[in-house]
Amino acid sequence: MALVAALACGGEAGGPGPSTPRIDYVDGAIEPVLVAGAAAVIEGFGFGDSQSTGTVRFPLQGSGTVAAIVAPGTWSDQSIRIIVPDSATSGTMTVTPARGSTLSAAVHVLPRVSFDPLTLTWQARSAFPRAPVGVALAAGVEPAGAVWNATLYAAGGAEPLGGDSVMVPDSAVFVARIVPGGGGAISSWTRPRDLPARRAFAAAAFANRFNSRFDGRALYVIGGTDSAGRSRATVFRSLATSDTAFGPFVPIEPLPTPIAGAMAVVRRGRIYVMGGTDSLGRPQTSVYVGRIGLDGHIDGWYSQPSLSGPRAYGGGLVLDDRVVVFGGIQDSVRLGGGLDATPPRLAAADTARVSLTSGFLTGSWAAAGAPLPEGRSQFATLPLGDVVFVVGGLYGGAGTNAAETIAAGLDGDSLGGFAGPVGVNSIAGSGGGTLIGPAGVTWLGGDGAWHGIVLGGIDLVTRLRRDGAWGF
Q1: Residue 114 has pLDDT above 50, yes or no
Q2: In terms of DSSP H, where are the helices of 279-354?
Q3: Are 337 and 461 in contact (CB under 8 A)?
Q4: Contact, 115 vs 443, CB < 8 A?
Q5: What strand order describes the sheet that includes 315-318?
Q6: Per-residue pLDDT tens for 422-441?
Q7: Which residues contact 247 (CB under 8 A, 6 or more apart)?
Q8: Could you give the domains of the chain?
Q9: Which of 270, 104, 244, 100 is nearest to 178 (CA)?
Q10: Closest among 208, 344, 346, 350 to 274, alpha carbons compared
Q11: N or C: more exposed end of the chain, with fewer CB within 10 A?
Q12: Considering only CA atoms, which of 258, 281, 263 is closest in space to residue 343?
C-alpha cells in the first residue's frame, strides 16, 4: 500500500528512469500558473540531498533572474519547497543543484493582487440557460503568451419543484467563455454535450497542463445524486479538444462510496472530496484525495483521516499546509439541504495538516473555532488569495439578506473570522433574489486580478428557482 500511495502522489510508474535528473512538475502541474509571494513545490529527481550551494531562480521583471527562497530543511533529492519571488515573471525557472547540471521548467507567474472586500461590486452576467440548484461548477485557465483564456463549465444541477419538496436532477452541461480583459464578463452559455446520466449536487473539476500533470484537457463530474435522489459514487470524464469543445462523458475511477453535497476542492493537481451525504441523506465524515494522472484518469481515490464529525453542504479550503472545512449540516436532511430552519446549521470549522508535496493529510482533524458568525449552510465559497467570501446560503438572517456576502482573511494557513455584509451592492438588492444553494467559482486573470461568479439557487423568499449569474 505504501508503494501504491507513493506512485499515486509522489512518483510515477512510467516515464524517465530515476537516474535521470529532471524537473517533473511544479506545484503539481506541467506548466504551472504561480503567484508571486506564494509557496510552491518542485518535484523531480537529482536535486541533491541538501541545498548547500544549490539555487532556484526565476526570470526577473525587466531582465536577469532572481533567486527564490527555499524553505529551510525542504530541499531533498526529489522535491524542493520555495516561495515565488515578488519580482519574478513568467518564463523559464531553473534549479541548479550543488552538484550536477542546471534543470529548467516553464512557469507562468502572476503578480500578487489583493482583493479588497469593501470594493466588491456584483454585476449581472449572461443568464444561465437553466434555473437549477446544486450545479457542479468549474473554471479552466489556459495562458498562451499575452493571451489568457478562461472558461466556465456548469454540469447538472436539480430543478426544484414545489419549493424544495422535490428535486429533479438534470444532465445538461453548459460552457461559457470568460471575455479576455472584460473584468470577469462572460459570453453566452452553450450546450456542447450532456452527461450520460442526471446528476445534482456533484462536484466538478477541470484539468490541463497548467494545473495538473495531464497534458490535455479534461472535465470531471464527481459524485452527486441521480434521478431517484440517491447519492452516487460515479466519476464522469470528458476529454476536450479545445476550451469549449469536448467529447462524450465516460465513467472512470469511482469514489469509494456514494457522495453528494460534499466540500470539494481542486488544488495542485489533486481533487479533495470531504464529507457530503450518503444515499439516505445522512452527512458523512469521509475524506478522499485523488490525483489527476498523466492519462487524465484519477490515480486512485485514497481514504484520508475522517472529519471530526459528519458534515455536508458547507465550505472547504485547501491551503499550503492545512485543509479546512466550515459550516454545513451534520444531521440527516432532504436533498439539497432544505429550506427549513431545522436541522441546525454549523458555524464551527475543522482543520487538518496536509503535505504540500504528497497532497495527503498528515494528521487527524481538530476543531478550529467558529469562523462563521452563526450557523450557515448551502452557500457558495469563493477563495480569492488572501481573502475568502461566503455568498448566500441558509442562516438566521437569510430572509432579510442580513449577511448575503461575508468575508474572512486568509493568513498563511489560518482562516480568520467571517464578517459583513461586504461590498458596494448585493445580489438580492440588484434583483437576484435571496439565494440558497448557488454554485460558485473563482479564477485568476492574466493581470493577477481575481474574478468570481455565482449562479443558480433557490430564492428563499419566493421559493422559486433562479437563473441568474452574478460576478465580479
Answers
A1: yes
A2: none
A3: no
A4: no
A5: 315-318, 322-326, 349-353, 366-367
A6: 999 999 999 999 999 999 99
A7: 193, 238, 239, 240, 241
A8: 2-109 (2.60.40.10), 117-471 (2.120.10.80)
A9: 244
A10: 350
A11: N
A12: 281
User: Which residues are bridge partners to 321 per DSSP?
Assistant: none
- Residue 443 DSSP code: E
**pLDDT value of residue 10:** 44
Q: Tell me the CA end-to-end span of the chain in Å, nearest whole number.
A: 45
Place of cell 441546525: 344
Residues 5-22: tens digit of each pLDDT: 433 444 444 445 557 999
Question: 0.90 cut: is pTM over it?
Answer: yes
CA 88 to chain centre: 25
3-class SS letters over 27-82: CCECCCEEECCCEEEEEEECCCCCCCCCEEEEEECCCCEEECEECCCCCCCCEEEE
Residue given cell 475511477 in the structure block: 253
Q: Can you say whether the dihedral through the CA atoms of 359, 363, 365, 366 is positive or negative?
A: negative
pLDDT in tens, 321-369: 999 999 999 999 888 899 998 999 999 999 999 999 999 999 999 999 9
Secondary structure (DSSP) of 155-216: E--EEEETTTTEEEEEEEEEEEEEPTTSTT-B---EEEEEEEEEEBS-EEEEE-TTTSS-SS
Least Cα distance to 212 among 21, 30, 381 occurs for 30
> Grid coordinates standing for 259?
457522495
pLDDT of 180 higher than 90: no
Q: Are residues 323 and 317 in contact, defined by beta-carbon separation less than 8 angstroms?
A: yes
Please tell me the distance from the alpha carbon of residue 61 to that of residue 134, in angstroms, as a whole number. 43
Q: For 231-280, how does the pLDDT look when each residue is reduced to its tens digit (9 = 90+)?
A: 999 999 999 888 888 999 999 999 999 999 999 999 999 999 999 999 89
